[in-house]
Amino acid sequence: MALFISGGERHRAAATLKTCDGRVAAGGGRGLNSLLILGWASLALGVYGTWLKGTAAALSLSGSDLGEFVKFLPAVRSGSLLVHRQAFYLPVAALVISVSLLVGSHQAQLRTAARRLLLALAGLASLQLLPPAWSLSSIRTSEFRLQLAVLGACALLLACTKWLIRLPPYLRGSLVGLVSLASAVLPADQFRMIIPEAASVYGSTPEMGWGFWTTELGLILISVTALALVLRVARTKGN
Which of 207, 197, 180, 217 is nearest to 61 (CA)? Predict the structure, then answer.
């Protein structure tokens, strides 16, 4: 048995290991890419989907509808129940933030057409921040000032995507992960609080609709993907 390996054999072995590592990394990248796209698709569907399912179609509300609906609950109007209605708009903001920070990154491995499509979908979803039956005079009131400011920030983020990708990957991944987790927890907590009040208005306990669960799934997938990207960058630096 040979005890020594020639220089040529060492070079060939190193090249083989490098090729294998590249294939593994590419496979992991494709897996993260699929999870990220699935998360964005689930979140976009959930934003437009039914969160509160009433006995009639007209009584079924989306997440953004809940942001307006809670204002008219008796307990909220009397001040006995404190609800932060802006929390119901967080999933929309999370979609825009995650797309603007990750869609153009090398780790996402998306083609130009897919990037443009996702940016357009995120822009359309951000319009959920506008109040129903809005007008130029209504959105200028103090009640909707915060929503209008967030809508403007969303438009700015989507327009600056090609510059945002210059931020360190670990920073972008961390921001997306934190925002997505907060957007999954805070609206769910507010939703849980208003269910008993909604039951008194509806006359029966309404169900949580598919839009809520789809939104939660999308946010969890985006959070997991963002965390995986951060860990992969850290592992690459460690090597």
Answer: 207
8 Å CB contact between 123 and 159: no
Q: Which residues contact 211 (CB under 8 A, 6 or more apart)?
A: 45, 46, 47, 48, 49, 50, 51, 62, 63
Per-residue pLDDT 10s for the chain (239 aa) are 444 445 555 555 444 434 433 443 444 456 678 889 999 999 999 999 999 987 666 678 999 999 989 988 989 998 898 999 999 999 999 999 999 999 887 666 778 888 889 999 999 999 998 877 666 666 777 778 888 899 999 999 999 998 998 898 889 999 999 999 999 999 999 999 999 898 888 888 888 999 999 999 999 999 999 988 888 777 776 55
* Reported pTM: 0.81
- What is the spatial distance between Cα 207 and Cα 103, in angstroms, rounded to a whole number? 34
Contact 215, 91 (CB under 8 A): yes
> d(Cα 54, Cα 38) in Å, to the nearest integer?
28
